[in-house]
Amino acid sequence: MSSIKRVFLFCLTASFSWTCGDDPKPIDCDLSGPIISLGTVTNAASCSVSDGSIKVSATGGKEPYLFSLNDDPGQEEGVFNNLHAGYYTVKVADANGCSKSVDNVSVKASDFQVNADIEPDKLCLGGDGQITINIEQINPPYQFKLGTGSLSINNTFSNLPTGTYGITVQDNIGCSVFLNVTVPRGQSNVSWNDVIKPIIDKSCAKSGCHDGATRIDFRVFQNAKAQAKAVKSKTQDRSMPREGTITQDEIDLIACWVDDGALLN
Questions:
Q1: Tens of pLDDT along 139-153?
Q2: What is the C-alpha separation between 237 and 33, in angstroms, rounded?
Q3: Cα 132 to the chain's mean position, in Å?
Q4: Could you read off the pLDDT of 64-79 as tens digits, one per residue?
Q5: Residues 189/265, Cβ–Cβ less than 8 Å
Q6: What is the pTM of this model?
Q7: What one-character-per-residue DSSP string does the chain give?
C-alpha cells in the first residue's frame, strides 16, 4: 500500500471516533472539505473507441487527495484517460476523509449522442426519482436496461431512490454505452416536530447522554440544528446513539432532515 493511501486511511478512521462519552467536534466537511472542479472533457471518437478523457482538480480540505472514477480504485492524479462514451461520477477524497463528487459527467461520441433527464428523489423512505434517456437517432432503434435487467425499448426508469444507477444503451448495430447516472436528493420535508424530535426523545435524550445534564440537549431545536451534520454522520456510522437503539429508517429520516437544511417544521 502506498504512503498516500496509508495516510488517507488513518485520517479517515481517526475522524470518526466521536462517541457519547467523548465529544470532540467533528470535521465539518461542507466547510472544511475539498472542492472539486470539472476541467476538460474530451469526447470519444466513436462508440467503439475508448479515447475520451475527463480532467478534474481539487482545492481546499487536507492534502493528499485521492481521485476516483465511478467505483474504480483511487489515484493521485485527477486525469482519467481511455474512456468510452458514457456518463461518469468523479470523486475526490482528502486526508480527513471528506469527499466531494461531480456527478453525471457526459463523454459523448460522434455516433452516440446520449443525454439523461434526471428528476430528484423527494421521498425520504422510498423513492420517486426518475431518469429518462434521450438519444440522437443515429443508429435506431435503441434499447435500454437498468442494472442487470433486460434490454427493452423503455427509456424511462421511475420510482428511484436517491443513488447512482448503471444504465446500458445499445444501438441497432450492437454498440453500447454505459451510463453511471446519479439521482440527487430533492426536498423531502421531513418534519422536526413530528418525526425528528420523537426519535431524539426516544433514543438520544437519555441519562448520561444528550439529556441536557451531562451532554448538550438535542431536544432543544437550536442545539440539534447547530449539531445537525454531526448527528447525521454519527447516526449513519452507528456510533450514535451508543446503545444502538435507532433503526435504519430513523437514520435515513435524520439524514433527510439534515439534507433539507435542518428546518423547524
A1: 999 999 999 999 999
A2: 18
A3: 20
A4: 999 999 989 899 999 9
A5: yes
A6: 0.81
A7: --HHHHHHHHHHHHTT--BTTB-PPPP-HHHHSEEEEEEEEE-BSSTT---EEEEEEEEES-SPPEEEETTSPPBSSSEEEEEPSEEEEEEEE-TTS-EEEEEEEEE-BTTB-EEEEEE-B--SSS--EEEEEEE--SS---EEEETTS--BS--EEEEEPSEEEEEEEE-TTS-EEEEEEEE-B------IIIIIHHHHHHHTS-TTSSSSSSS--TTSHHHHHHTHHHHHHHHHTT-SSTT----HHHHHHHHHHHHTT----
**Amino acid letter for position 71:** D
pLDDT in tens, 208-238: 788 888 889 999 999 999 999 889 989 999 8
Residue type for 112, please?
A: F
Do 162 and 121 form a contact (C-beta atoms < 8 A)? yes
Per-residue pLDDT at 208: 78
pLDDT, residue 195, reads 97
In a 13 Å sphere around the CA of 228, the CA atoms on its Cβ side amount to 21
* Residues of the chain below pLDDT 70: 1-26, 244
Residue type, 218: F
Bridge partners (DSSP) listed for residue 104:
none
* Locus of grid cell 449522442: 113
How far apart are alpha carbons 229 and 100 in whole angstroms? 15
> Do residues 107 and 83 make contact, with C-beta atoms less than 8 angstroms apart?
yes
- pLDDT at residue 242, rounded to an integer: 75
Nearest in space to 101 (alpha carbons), one of 55, 69, 133: 69
For 50-80, b/e burial (b = at least 16 CB within 10 A) is bebbbbbebebbbebbbbbbeeeebeeebeb
